[in-house]
Design brief:
It is a single chain. With about 800 residues, this protein is α+β, with helices and mostly antiparallel strands. Helices cover about 30% and strands about 20% of the residues. It contains 25 helices and 35 strands. The chain has an eight-stranded antiparallel sheet with strand order 31-28-30-29-33-34-32-35. The chain has a seven-stranded antiparallel sheet with strand order 15-12-14-13-18-20-16, with helices on both faces. Helix 9 (about 230-245) packs antiparallel against helix 11, helix 10 packs across helix 12 (about 315-335) and helix 13 (about 350-365) packs antiparallel against helix 14 (about 395-410). The radius of gyration is 26 Å and the shape is globular. The two termini are about 50 Å apart.
């Protein structure tokens, strides 16, 4: 009691306007997350009133010499924000300010305790939305979402949290407060993109205070479809067909017959047969476009074998079509004392195999199981219902989980797609990380949290806070008995060349050219939209820029590369990332390395890439709109907030230097002589093009522009830029115009990405010219969290503390 009183006294020194909880009844509400059955009692809970109090607690944590765990709403499903070794839980529920929403810049600044639905309501009046949508949206916080890299039903079209985090402000254990990135989503003044390691770090590296998040134009209209299937094979046909359909569904969800029966035997019944697979899918976008695609989607579902297809664009009816899917999770908590929902991602071709394993294992153990999952990206959520009070039931569930995860990895999958590892799956991490890959993973927390004082026993079981003998703090947590696994292919095996037409992924050498990729993809109905140069290798293109014209719709390279073979400085090759399109298993070294300037510190080099491909929906058309410079700028800014933005491959403004003869390789219509032009690229079926064309004609007429449409077999290729400037979307056109007018360069503004690609008219003195540009614009772009890079100029030397961080990490990469 004396120790607890001393602890409370110290905490009250830092928390003066917030709250400090130490009574057993108060602490009971914090001993578990939504996983439920694993409980760990903290010694105290603090609720800071603002970011300053949060900063004070974290920076003073070393004096306490006990574990610190950051917690949001506690809705996670992997045992993440719990005091596994006792200590203090810092509950961030009071940090709920939405500080700013930029409609023109497509970003918002929020505090870590903002709830997901709170943000969505605030964004509605701006015509914007934040796409990640975990089922706990009404209560889950953005801090927890970023920590766990949360996903949701609409991830198939839009991606997960890591695709939308532009910047992170975080408090380190040494008391320092740092901002990584910002509204522009770049590195700021940092050399490395440290926010890539922060996202999905599960509270083990730092305490988040606020975020800058990327936003999208809110869709104009949506149609929801619900289809029933008599067997898994016909449901699979529908899933595979939807995955490559030109309507590009935002969600493809599947419930198995056991899950449907559970819903139909409850007060939430919706009138479905109990022996069917239920598929829910949704399309959205501009009204005239999605309305045109409705019958095609309905016919696809019928042709795949559905016995009943229902669909609607009415919000009330759409909610009813979603109802069975939405209530499933809550029902399991009502009908079972405990349930474990697993979160594995598999190649979609292995769906039948893995589902059968789940059924066989659960039936043999006498445990009910239901399956409801994100079928579009192979993210399974098998739910095992049990009662931990009954002797042996918990052990049965854990044994099933072990065999399931072993099989998931064997078929090429990974342990988590959106729930994270927490302390629920640490025992399975040896299936993924061993040897060099484990060493590199553990090097990440060694930079920021070497004693594992922040959230110990999470992600990796070896992360224990305690003395040098490995004895942990005297809390009531335990790490459990580690599982022993045979050598797993995923742990040491490298990626081999492959092409998967069901998941739309392929593995190619880093030295592959655009022609190599196109010749493999195009005959099979796929494309890789991020190409800068037809003849340079992928490795060279990534060194030149992290973006391409196709980034307007598909994101940067790092969002379209799921894994790679990486050669370490010692010559050994390791596997980093996955072959599946969705993963939150371990620290995100993949994105960190892909964004690392190649000439900063030698961490090695890529050998092979696993590329996420996209369906080729038909013909590629490029519309060039030209006229008065100000009118072109206005047209670009008018286009970006519309629902059409999400359907154009590229929305670029080309700004030519007045003296340009257009000999630098920058793609531009020779039919136009204006200095500024808006370039819009569309990949669509023939029958859809008239709707795109009609809308673009209206835009052109509105601003008095001339439009010329050219037909191509692929996206525009401008070549590798001489320099790259990263800013916010609302500033990018003006920046491109300014640089093109004042320096001997043509510029391409990738509008929605906020990226300027600069092409020097004379490269004979490239380094000097780039230095001139950078010295002029760098302060402005750094201010908004942007950055610059050039293949001709090395970045400045790193400064403390980054030089120390990079040095620590580089030592592990270079270890013999």
């Amino acid at each position: 009691m004396a120790a607890r009183t001393a602890l409370e006294t110290q905490l009250l020194h830092w928390i003066r306007r917030g709250r400090v909880l130490t009574a057993p009844a108060q602490l009971a509400g914090y001993d578990a997350d939504a996983l439920g059955y694993k409980r760990y009692r903290p010694d105290a809970v603090v609720i800071p009133a603002d970011c300053e109090e949060l900063e004070a607690v974290v920076s003073g944590a070393r004096k306490l010499d006990i574990p610190i765990t950051i917690r949001g709403a506690g809705t996670s499903l992997s045992g993440g924000p719990v005091a596994a070794q006792g200590g203090v839980i810092v509950h961030t529920s009071a940090l709920r300010k939405i500080r700013h929403v930029s409609r023109e810049g497509f970003w918002c600044e929020i505090e870590c305790g903002v709830a997901l639905n709170q943000l969505d309501i605030a964004l509605q009046t701006h015509g914007l939305f934040y796409p990640p949508d975990p089922s706990s949206g009404p209560v889950c916080t953005l801090g927890g979402n970023v920590a766990m890299n949360a996903g949701g039903a609409h991830c198939f079209r839009y991606g997960v949290t890591s695709n939308y985090v532009l910047g992170v402000e975080a408090v380190m254990l040494d008391g320092s407060l740092h901002r990584f990135g910002g509204p522009a989503g770049g590195n700021g003044e940092w050399h490395a993109d440290w926010k890539r390691l922060m996202v999905g770090s599960e509270g083990t590296l730092a305490a988040f205070t606020r975020f800058w998040l990327r936003l999208l134009p809110r869709p104009e209209k949506a149609w929801t479809f619900r289809a029933t299937f008599g067997n898994l094979r016909s449901a699979e046909r529908a899933i595979h067909a939807l995955s490559v359909h030109a309507s590009y569904p935002v969600a493809i969800e599947l419930m198995d017959p056991r899950c449907v029966a559970m819903v139909e035997n409850s007060p939430m019944a919706v009138g479905l047969p109990q022996d069917i697979f239920l598929l829910v899918t949704e399309i959205e976008g501009p009204a005239e476009l999605v309305d045109h695609r409705v019958q095609a989607v309905a016919s696809l579902l019928t042709e795949a074998g559905s016995g009943d297809v229902q669909y609607s664009d009415d919000p009330t009816q759409r909610a009813k079509l979603w109802k069975a899917r939405k209530v499933a999770g809550g029902l399991m908590g009502q009908i079972s004392a405990d349930f474990l929902v697993q979160d594995a991602v598999i190649p979609k071709s292995a769906l039948a195999d893995i589902l059968q394993l789940v059924y066989d294992e659960a039936d043999a153990a006498g445990l009910p199981t239901v399956n409801v999952f994100h079928a579009g990206d192979g993210n399974l959520h098998p739910n095992f219902l049990f009662d931990s009070r009954q002797p042996g039931e918990l052990e049965k569930v854990e044994a099933i989980s072990k065999r399931l995860m072993q099989r998931v990895v064997e078929v090429g999958g990974t342990l988590s797609g959106e729930h994270g590892i927490g302390n629920d799956k640490t025992a399975y991490m040896p299936l993924i990380f061993r040897g060099d890959t484990l060493r590199l993973q553990l090097a990440v927390p060694a930079i920021f949290n070497p004693r594992h004082q922040l959230n110990p026993l999470k992600v990796f079981a070896s992360r224990r806070f305690g003395d040098h003998n490995g004895n942990g703090h005297n809390g009531n947590g335990h790490s459990g008995t580690p599982h022993r696994f045979p050598e797993a292919a995923n742990a040491s095996g490298l990626f081999r060349p492959f092409f998967d037409p069901i998941d739309g992924v392929m593995c190619v050498p880093a030295e592959s050219t655009a022609e190599d990729i196109h010749n493999t993809c195009q005959p099979r109905g796929f494309r890789f939209p991020l190409i800068l140069d037809r003849h340079r290798t992928l490795r060279e293109q990534l060194s030149a820029s992290q973006y391409a014209p196709g980034s307007s719709r598909f994101g940067p390279y790092c969002d379209n590369i799921t894994g790679m073979n990486w050669r370490l400085p010692n010559g050994r090759i390791v596997r980093i990332g996955e072959r599946v399109v969705k993963s939150t298993t371990g620290y995100d070294l993949l994105r960190f390395l892909l964004h690392l300037p190649t000439n900063t510190v030698s961490f090695g080099e890529p050998v092979d890439f696993v590329l996420r491909l996209r369906p080729d929906s038909g013909r590629q058309r490029i519309a060039v709109l030209a006229g008065q410079d100000d009118a072109v700028s206005q047209a670009a800014h008018a286009l970006l907030p519309t629902s059409w933005m999400n359907w154009f491959d590229a929305v670029d403004v080309i700004a030519r230097n007045p003296a340009s003869s257009n000999k630098n390789g920058c793609s531009f219509s020779n039919s136009l002589s204006t200095r500024l032009a808006l370039r819009v690229s569309v990949n669509s079926p023939e029958e859809d093009w008239p709707r795109f064309e009609c809308w673009l004609n209206a835009l052109s007429d509105q601003f008095g522009l001339t439009m010329i449409v050219e037909t191509h077999d692929r996206l525009p290729v401008d070549g590798c830029p001489d320099f790259v400037l990263k800013t916010t979307p609302d500033r990018v056109v003006a920046l491109a115009r300014e640089v093109a007018e004042q320096y001997a360069a043509d510029c391409v503004a990738l509008c929605y990405c906020g990226v300027v690609h600069g092409y020097l008219m004379d490269s004979s003195d490239a380094a000097r010219q780039v230095d001139e540009v950078v010295s002029h614009v760098a302060p402005r772009i750094h201010e908004v969290g942007g950055d610059w890079r050039s293949r001709h100029v090395a970045p400045p030397e790193t400064r403390p503390p980054e030089s120390v961080w990079l040095g620590t990490l580089a030592q592990e990469f270079a270890r013999p």
